[in-house]
Specification:
The complex is a heterodimer. Chain A is mainly alpha-helical. Chain A is built from seven helices and no strands. In chain A, about 85% of the residues lie in helices and about 0% in strands. Chain B folds into two domains: about 35-55 and about 230-335, Fusion Protein Consisting Of Minor Coat Protein, Glycine Rich Linker, Tola, And A His Tag, Chain: A, Domain 2 (2-Layer Sandwich), CATH 3.30.1150; about 75-200, no CATH class. A four-stranded antiparallel beta sheet of chain B has the order 1-4-2-3, covered by helices on one side. Classes of the chains: A mainly alpha, B alpha+beta. Chain B: This is Cell envelope biogenesis protein TolA.
């Protein structure tokens, strides 16, 4: 491989294709390139965050079911940023507020506990899946943006044919090559985005199900405690 | 933006830079773009109608070339004046120059001995031989006498070869004169009349084979005009190949519009300036090879043909002398066929 920039039209060099392109196509290419970079940034960050969250939640739930004293465990995990810790914290705080007075409304307390922890679960999932909409947008729109650049470039190529009065491949090929490069970048950005979106949606759903199971289990525990309370 | 996302962004930017950098230095580029080039394609140019010789007045047979008339054979027949020799020789002053050649005739005696041998004239021979040795000038009389003898064979030869009379006497003289500086004077000096002598200076310029290759039959043609430059099959082929060679690069750029289109032959008419540029838009004058399968490509092939000739004009190197003649390349019709 010769490490020299090959600037002729026959090469597949992205730089050469970019330089030869029309300014509209250049704009499209730049946008798609930024979308691709942002997509990959999200993919890298999200996959790490998701893996960390799953691992932390597994460890937290194991610790929780082992814990003897919920109040002591709550004090210990107070500053934990894990979703399950947040849900646990929301349940404990609601429990404390509901049982602060002398009279305890068991049904109302159960309802309030369920609502508080459900809302905490929803909030955590929202926070977790914040960037997924970017992936969905890039995955669905990037091919069309690339296609727009291609159509524009091909239109420009045909204008070139009309000007040159010549239909030879040498006149058409560079323009079409540049135009198709826009679609290539669009697909380059969209394909990872779509795959990552599906994969992360599945991961978020599993986290949500896991959170709901944990919330249900905690709610069951609190509800049992409520029955024993006098 | 969270800390994790910042890390992800850095990783993504680095990854894109690495990927596009690799692509830019030809990591995935086509190894040899030359292999992707289309192989040269063929174009055939055929004259629509075979042209024949187009001389303004073509001659089936060239007019027979006749040697210049230098006098009637009768003039050349000197025997008659010879008989009157004694009278002119002393009397006319013109014979005075003749005597000068006479010293040269002394060598002539050499031919004379050859001729006399077949001939039964013993008298002239002895006379000239002694005279050159003794007195060249005082004896003009005998010299003329031998001359009639060589002159006599002359009329005889014209009869055989149908040559003009003066040419015949010229023949023996070059053959017989090894040393003479003035070959023509003795011939003139033959017993011909003065007028005939002055009127026939060119006879000896003709080679002795100037009738070679000509038939004795008179040509039926009366035309003496020089044949004009004419457009024959050979010239036509040369022009067609010259044009083809020059439009080949443009033809190679054309792309066949569809299957069957290469069967269409377009007769295209070019008006060409003398400098080779097109005087007007090439005009399609007809098609052959059009069938139901490819008739939808006819217009396209027309456009390709016109583009081919427009793209590779002006045409260079066409023979100028064949420009402005009937059927010349000023207005030429060619048959164009798509490659393939």
């Amino acid at each position: 491989m010769n490490p020299v920039f090959n600037m002729d039209a026959a090469s597949l060099s992205p730089v050469a294709l970019f330089i030869h392109a029309d300014w509209v196509v250049k704009f499209v290419m730049i946008g798609l390139l930024l979308a691709s970079i942002w997509t990959w940034a999200i993919i890298v960050a999200f996959s790490r965050k998701l893996a960390r969250t799953k691992k932390g939640m597994t460890r937290f739930e194991r610790d929780f079911w082992k814990a003897e004293d919920i109040d002591a465990f709550h004090r210990m995990e107070q500053d934990n940023e894990l979703p399950s810790a947040r849900v646990f914290s929301a349940g404990v705080q609601e429990w404390r507020r509901s049982t602060a007075g002398g009279h305890i409304d068991r049904d109302g307390t159960r309802e309030r506990l369920a609502t508080a922890m459900g809302s905490a679960v929803a909030g955590e999932i929202d926070k977790l899946s914040d960037r997924l909409n970017v992936l969905a947008t890039v995955g669905s729109v990037a091919p069309f943006v690339g296609l727009f650049g291609t159509v524009w470039g091909i239109m420009r190529s045909f204008t070139g044919i009309a000007q040159a009065q010549n239909t030879s491949l040498a006149v058409v090929a560079p323009g079409i090559s540049e135009a198709l490069f826009a679609t290539a970048i669009g697909l380059f950005a969209a394909i990872p985005a779509v795959i990552a979106y599906n994969r992360f949606s599945h991961g978020v759903n599993r986290v949500e199900a896991s959170l709901n199971r944990f919330a249900d289990g905690f709610h069951t525990t609190l509800s049992r405690q409520l029955d024993q309370a006098r | 933006m969270e800390r994790g996302e910042r890390t992800g962004l850095a990783i993504a930017v680095a990854g894109h830079i690495v990927l596009f950098g690799l692509l830019s230095v030809g990591f995935l580029s086509t190894p040899n773009p030359e292999k992707l080039k289309v192989t040269p394609i063929d174009i055939s140019l055929v004259k629509d109608v075979a042209l024949e010789a187009a001389s303004p007045n073509p001659n089936e047979q060239a007019a027979q070339s006749i040697a210049p008339e230098e006098g009637l054979p009768e003039d050349a027949a000197p025997p008659e004046p010879v008989e009157a020799e004694p009278e002119p020789q002393p009397a006319p002053p013109p014979p005075a120059p003749q005597p000068k050649p006479q010293p040269q005739p002394k060598p002539q005696p050499k031919p004379e001995p050859a001729k006399p041998q077949p001939r039964p004239e013993p008298k002239p021979q002895p006379k000239p031989q002694p005279k050159p040795a003794e007195k060249p000038q005082p004896q003009p009389k005998p010299q003329p006498k031998p001359k009639p003898a060589p002159a006599k064979p002359a009329p005889a030869k014209p009869v055989r070869e149908a040559k003009p009379a003066p040419a015949a006497p010229a023949k023996p003289s070059p053959a017989a004169r090894p040393s003479t500086a003035k070959p023509s004077t003795p011939a003139r000096g033959s017993g011909q009349s003065q007028t005939a002598t002055t009127a026939k200076p060119r006879g000896s310029r003709l080679g002795d084979n100037f009738l070679k290759g000509l038939s004795p039959d008179p040509s039926p043609s009366k035309s003496e005009a020089a044949p004009a430059a004419k457009m024959g099959a050979q010239q036509l082929a040369n022009i067609a190949s010259a044009i083809q060679r020059q439009v080949q690069p443009c033809a190679n750029r054309q792309v066949t519009p569809g299957p069957g289109a290469e069967k269409i032959r377009v007769a295209i008419n070019l008006h060409i300036n003398r400098d080779g540029s097109l005087a007007s838009e090439p005009r399609v004058v007809g098609h052959t090879g059009v069938d139901g399968e490819n008739d939808r490509y006819v217009d396209r092939v027309d456009a390709l043909a016109i583009a081919t000739f427009k793209g590779c004009s002006p045409l260079r190197g066409l023979p100028q002398e064949l420009y402005d003649i009937p059927n010349g390349w000023r207005n030429i019709t060619l048959r164009y066929k798509l490659p393939g």
